[in-house]
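User: hey, got a sec? need Phosphoglycerate mutase family protein folded
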Amino acid sequence: MTKHAKPIIYLIRHGEKDAKLSTGKDPLGLSAQGLTRAQGIVQVFGTTSPYNIQHIIAEKPNNNGRRARPYETVLPLANILGLKVDHSIDRDDVKAVAKAAEAYNGVGNVLICWEHGTLAKIAKALGVKGYSKKSGWSGHVEYPTQRYDLIWTIEAPYHEIDSVTSEGVVGLDSDISGAPVSQAST
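Assistant: Yep! Here you go:
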């Protein structure tokens, strides 16, 4: 078996959701904006992008339809790339997510799509201790609640978030350049 270089791991949040129901629960599935984001990331991470995504991991949906947004967000991309989404890992099993990402030994890179509150825990399970100086970010690693567009780039040996950029989905993200995002803009 040929040993490949360690992949770059990209972490993203699932697409937007509608406002909470009168019961206080989140509605199922993606909102119209979330569906737009799911189609937009096809352009961001698709066949002509520099990301070279060859393995996709998304949070395991519950049987009742809850927690399906990460899978729904990356499914159009997986279809375009001809990949199967690994959606076998439970939301809170961050060690299994890190292990699955690090175990990928193919050509190309890994995309992880998850709930925003768990993304920092996944990064920590990978070994991330903070942001690199070149990212322009500092402090506690946390995915901002109000953002849906950030891409965390983590390169081997997976000790830092090397860059924070916007997906730049047209019609959703104010910074459509995909350029680095400042921490002040979150």
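Quick note: Helices lie at 32-45, 69-81, 94-103, 116-126. Let me know if you need anything else on Phosphoglycerate mutase family protein.
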